[in-house]
Amino acid sequence: MKTKKPLSLCSVIASLLLLSHGTVDHGGRSTRSSILFYTMGRSGYEFDVFTLPIQFDSTPKSGYEFQITDGRSVNYNGHFPSMISSSSLSILPNNQILTTNKDLPPPINLIYVSERNGSSTICLDAVYHGGPARATRRSALEVSNRVQVTLVGDQQSNGLNSMKDRPSLVGDHLIYASTHENIGAPRMSWTAVYSTHLRTRLTRRLTPHGMTDFSPAVSPSETWTAVASYGERGWSGEIQELKTDIFIFKTHDGSDRVKVVEQGGWPCWVDDSTLYFHRVGDDGWWSVYRAIFPQSGKISVDSVVTQRVTPPGLHAFTPATSPANKRFIAMATRRPDSEYRHIELYDVVSEQFWEVTRPVSPKAHHYNPFLSPDFIRIGYHRCRGLSNGGKDTHLLLENIHSPLPDVSAFRIDGPFPSFSPEGDRIAYLDRQGLNVMNLDGSGLHCVYSGTLFGTAWDPVRKGVIYTSAGPYFASVGTEVDVISINIEGDKLSHKKLTEGTENNAFPSPSPDGKWLVFRSGRSGYKNLYIMDAVNGEKGGLYRLTDGPWDDTMANWSPDGDWIAFSSDRENPGSGSFALYMIHPNGTGLKKLLDSGSGGRINHPCFSPDGNSIVFTSDYAAVSAEPISIPSQYQPFGEIFTIRSDGTGLSRMTHNPYEDGTPTWGPASMRAADVQQAVDEDCNFSDSSWLSAARPSAAVGGQCGAAYRQEASN
Asked: What are the φ and ψ backbone dihedral angles of 621, each rounded to 5 degrees?
């Protein structure tokens, strides 16, 4: 449970930057607005990349662990490049040149993904751990013992805040996965592999159009790149193992593409004829496998020999290799006697494991190991924590790069945010209840304790907030009530607006403040109703939609003419929720967008001018292998916007997390983060489906699907 503390001085200074700075139209009104959304568990990550020396003659100790990245933002999926020389660094943009002092130990060079500055970028850090950095540089960030360069950012994705993942440096080129190109079909992942020439900045797509590639790995000779790929099959809703296949292709242009393994992910090469990968075995254990290519003849699934490497009895995944020592592979494991994910080395000859991270930090999750080319170091990422340079703060508001002009975007540390009508306050929920704060994060206080979901401010009566009180993800007959909470005056008060035991939720007021649209299960199905906003059902009630399906998550347009909502009416009970609009009198029903068979579009909210709608959806499927990230009930769900006429679909977020419950308000918020002091350290868990000591062999990903069967409440 979080314990709120006063904001720090740094936080207050940062929050003062969140001042209105909108442009003004001819009527003197601000033309800017802001979108807030919540990301499941994201504020607890605080990842940094760490390294330990490989020493088989002694047990690893905490004093040997070295934090490579700088403790800013979330840093993950590192790569030790084969060589970073002065000549190779000369290809970096803007003449970013590094010259080292030969009298000092060589720096640790690391390429990694970082989610800093509201955008996902690929960075190169040269870190001097044996003394102060003595280097000359131009147009690079240099701090004490670090030189840091951005290799790939928004400029390679036409300004989009796309996800960029699992990078490898190949000569003058960076090979990585990105989500910046729309694949053009619903529920198809946008993730593909690209090559960027670091001198010219020219970027080339290596994945064929119409296909999806994850987790690229370049062979030691740099001739081949291996990927986990859907091919042309597409995503079927998996949230555990994606059931991808392994393909290889020529690194320089993507040619000679061929499938070499059926069902496999996270490939890595030990030499140009052998690679490792992970998959779930028939016995339910995640294990590392080996693929051996033929010495001559055609390479295909039929000619490649696959062998299971790690035994059952533990989960082993995300393997890593080094060409300097083919006997050992690194991997992440989940053992039945541990609640944590750890990094281990495995001797493929003696079939023995060697623990790496458990002796150093036994109560922390460790992710996605990688080995230095000389087999001297092993790297991984984990939560940096309070004892490792971290601070006891989370980002209460995190500024996110927005692709929409005059619209700012922020991630908030709690679900169901909403703006006050004046745009000067924000309501949101956490595990304690309903919180209200000013735009800059000041004045944060809890106004109602209890289990709630959904928030909406009354547009006329100052300080009145509507919400749903009761358990979420509940049946139609579960007691859930719409309530109004008055936060003004000396004493807080609340009023129950619905009667009975039916599941009543997601209230949204009409712009004149007279009516509330909400969903109710009183007929045996969750349909939409409209009631008096002040006196609730007693003041007037009528039914808006009627049918053996679920209509839910309604939002009233600013002009009062339309109500947007999510519905599974085309395939009731399937979990497929599309975006609809209807007039408040029940006429004019129209579908704006669906996300394909099994797809979901949830939590629509109109823009302040009513011309657009923001929502969360699985329209872009998954962006990374789910096992490579912390626990997510559904490792998909991005924030999108669309015009109210159904045109102009735009993706706002690109990541492997669950983004949801967006709101679109009239506030103009300057691009600055706001920190919140918390009394917890790295509060996140590993994937729940890895914790079983005796796993089921059926691993199709149905746990998360069942959890989200009601499409987020």
From this structure: 55, -145
Cβ-contact 88, 56 below 8 angstroms: no
∠ CA 527-528-534, rounded to 5°: 140
Start and end residues for every CATH 2.120.10.30 domain found in the chain: 33-42+394-667
The DSSP-derived string for 141-201 is: EEETTEEEEEEE-GGGGTT----EEEEEEETTEEEEEE--S--SSTT----EEEEEETTT-
Dihedral of the alpha carbons of 129, 133, 134, 136, in degrees to the nearest 10: 130
Residue with tokens 């696959």: 306
Residue 98 CB-density burial (10 A; 0-12 exposed, 13-18 middle, 19+ buried)? buried
Distance of CA 65 to the CA centre of its chain: 27
Q: How many CB atoms lie within 10 A of CB 48?
A: 26
Which strand (E) or helix (H) includes residue 14? helix 9-15
Is residue 12 helix, strand or coil? helix
CB-based contacts of 491, cutoff 8 Å, min separation 6:
none
487/463 Cα distance (integer angstroms): 5
- Residues in contact with 103: Cβ distance below 8 Å, sequence separation at least 6, in sequence order: none
Across 97-140, where does the E strand assignment appear?
A: 108-114, 121-127
Q: Where are the alpha helices (DSSP H) in 482-626?
A: none
Query: Which two three-digit tokens encode residue 281?
Result: 């075995």
d(C-alpha 32, C-alpha 24), whole Å = 8
Do the bridges between strand 325-334 and strand 481-486 make them parallel or antiparallel, or are there none, so unpaired?
unpaired
Amino acid sitting at position 64: Y
Q: How far apart are CA 161 and CA 181, in angstroms?
A: 11
Closest CA to 114 of 169, 156, 152: 152
CA distance 541 to 558: 21
CA distance 427 to 439: 10
Full-model pTM: 0.90
Lowest mean pLDDT across 150-164, 331-345, 393-407, 538-552: 150-164
Contact 160, 654 (CB under 8 A): yes
Q: How far apart, in Å, are the Cα atoms of 679 and each of 4, 6, 35, 560, 653?
A: 7, 12, 28, 43, 29
- Which residues are within 8 A (CB) of 346 and not within 5 positions of it... i.e. 6 or more apart? 288, 309, 310, 316, 328, 329, 330, 331, 352, 353, 354
CB within 8 A of 233, min separation 6: which ones? none
Distance of alpha carbon 641 from alpha carbon 237, whole angstroms:
22
521 neighbors 502 (Cβ within 8 angstroms): yes
Distance, in Å, from the CA atom of 542 to the CA atom of 103, rounded to the nearest integer, reads 81
Task: Give 410's Cβ-side CA count (13 Å radius).
Answer: 32
> What CATH code is assigned to 33-42+394-667?
2.120.10.30
What pLDDT digit, counting tens, does each position of 352-379 carry? 999 999 999 999 999 999 999 999 999 9
Sign of CA dihedral 466, 709, 621, 696: positive
Q: Do 466 and 516 form a contact (C-beta atoms < 8 A)?
A: yes
No. of helices (H) and no. of strands (E), the chain = 3, 50
Q: How far apart are CA 372 and CA 378, in angstroms?
A: 6
**Residue 15 backbone class (left: φ over 0; alpha: ψ -120 to 50; beta: rest):** alpha
- Name the strand (E) or helix (H) holding 54: none
Whole-number average pLDDT of the chain:
86
What is the secondary structure of 583-594 as a DSSP string?
A: -TTS---EEEE-
DSSP lists the bridge partners of residue 205 as 194
pLDDT, one tens digit per residue, over 114-147 is 998 788 999 999 887 654 444 444 334 444 578 8
